[in-house]
Amino acid sequence: MKDIGVFGATGSIGASTLQVVREQPDEFRVVVLTAHSRQQKLAELIQEFKPSLAVIEEKPAEELVHIAKRHGCDLLEGRKALLDAAEYHMDIAMHALVGSAGLELALRLARKPMRLCLANKESIVCGGHLLKAAASLSGCQVMPVDSEHNAVYQLLEGRGLEDVARITITASGGPFRELPLDAFASITPEQAVKHPNWSMGAKISVDSATMMNKGLELIEAAYFFPVDQNQLQAVIHPQSIIHGLIELVDGSCLAHLSETNMQVPIRHALSPGKRLAGGQNLLDLMRVGQLELYPVEEERYPCFSLARQALAHAGGAPNILNAANEVAVGYFLAGKIGFLDIPKLVAKALGAAELAQWVASEAGTVEEVLELDATTRGLVQFWVKED
Ligand SMILES: NC(=O)c1ccc[n+]([C@@H]2O[C@H](COP(=O)([O-])OP(=O)(O)OC[C@H]3O[C@@H](n4cnc5c(N)ncnc54)[C@H](OP(=O)(O)O)[C@@H]3O)[C@@H](O)[C@H]2O)c1
Asked: Which residue's CA lies nearest to atom 15 of ligand 1?
């Protein structure tokens, strides 16, 4: 029986993780659950899983306090309590917060010799080098949860990177893969969050529509699979059935396929050594019928090109890219800017004179990473308010 903490339990990945746990009562015991604001949802989860500790960042309502007490669960509030929850004894942590707000938690978890299932790709983009250093000191096993990286991880199991000629991650292309380019200016948040294949949180859904998500994932791939950047590519695959491919130096090409269900990579990330049964829907390739692959159209997806440039540039560029994108997506979802303003703001941030010193070199400490993140956010907020 493994003790598991689910950070960001009330979100989409949190829900998929808890579904896997539900199916495996002999494998996992939930000891920690955290949420940001969804009190009612957290209360339901406490009643069902009875963790020893629950954390909510916002002030808890009386009903939540009462339910936690009734189920013998310590309920703590605030950011510090969230970070301190990393110290609780766990064999496995699922880190499913959204955004660079997850970086400090990722670093705290990586300092412990356990399995860290990392869905929060933004913490890799912003502080991958810090994460790697912390995990190698502690012996923490960092597992990719993103379906593409988890797929490549599985394909590489028992194989050296010297045998690998190229690594490919796939992208669905999002809801606007076929939309005429002159219609992009009028895309609404409601249209952008309707992903054709996956049901996900709002921020990652917009990132999928702009393909910033795939750009962030290329940076994530460079973290997990340290090959030359020219050996990493993304291709459009509208069916989202093939998640990753590796081409080997002998000309073989291996692919990982599954239904579009995040429980598949989560099962593997939670238990890489032992295959957990539970897939209700085995992949029905006859039903899928067709598997298409296309190159990424750069004009349609400028965010993807910006992310690729940030990866090539390195230094503080990935941090600026991520922070500017998070702020821009927040404004877009709030109806304050248009869809096409997202890449414009990200490009402006990457070229801003105010950030030039940061672009040149990598933020070496967590304090510097947080300062760069805050400076970029402040600048983008200023530009939007000024307009
Ligand atoms: N969804 C997917 O299919 C998918 C696939 C691959 C990777 N990912 C990655 O997984 C991460 C989570 O995505 P998601 O779609 O599950 O997001 P989501 O549905 O928006 O859930 C985010 C979770 O984090 C909590 N949270 C939000 N802001 C927070 C903050 N500032 N501090 C602490 N907790 C906070 C939320 O709490 P409340 O709900 O209480 O507000 C919620 O529990 C993202 O990095 C995403 O890129 C997601």
From this structure: 201
The residue type at 189: P
pLDDT band of 213, cuts 50, 70, 90: very high
Question: Among 94, 204, 211, which is best to mutate for testing ligand 1, by the most ligand atoms less than 8 A from CB?
Answer: 204
92-108 confidence digits (pLDDT tens): 999 999 999 999 999 99
Token readout for 40 is 């009612």
Task: Find the mean pLDDT for residues 342-355.
Answer: 97
Write down the residue that tokens 């707000």 correspond to: 101
| Cβ-contact 17, 118 below 8 angstroms | no
Centre a 10 Å sphere on the Cβ of residue 95 and count the other Cβ atoms it contains: 25
Class in CATH terms, 314-386? mainly alpha
User: Count of residues for the chain?
Assistant: 387
How high is the pLDDT of residue 133?
Answer: 97
Identify the residue whose C-alpha is closest to ligand 1 atom 38.
Answer: 36
* Cβ-proximal residues to 16 (8 Å cutoff; 6+ apart), any chain: 261, 262, 263, 266
The best mutation among 83, 98, 268 to test binding of ligand 1, ranked by most ligand atoms within 8 Å of the C-beta, falls on 98
Phi (first) and psi of residue 334, to 5 degrees: -85, 0
Q: Are 383 and 342 in contact (CB under 8 A)?
A: no
Atom of ligand 1 nearest to the CA of 216: 47
Q: Which atom of ligand 1 is nearest to the CA of 202?
A: 20
The per-residue pLDDT for range 116-152, each reduced to its tens digit, is 999 999 999 999 999 999 999 999 999 999 999 999 9
Residues near ligand 1 (Cβ within 6 A):
8-14, 35-38, 57, 82, 96-98, 101, 119-122, 146, 198, 200-201, 204, 262
Write out the two tokens for 91. Answer: 């064999």
Encoding tokens for residue 2? Answer: 């493994």
- Of the chain, the percentage scoring pLDDT greater than 70 comes to 99
pLDDT the model gives residue 387: 80
What's the pLDDT score for residue 197?
A: 80
Q: Can you name the residues that pair with 15 across neighbouring β-strands?
A: none
Residue 55 near residue 79, CB atoms below 8 Å? no
CA distance 322 to 218: 13
CATH class of 2-144: alpha beta
| CB neighbour burial string for 121-139, b if at least 16 within 10 angstroms, e if fewer | bbbbbbbbebbeebbeeee
What are the structural domain ranges in the chain? Answer: 2-144, 149-262, 314-386
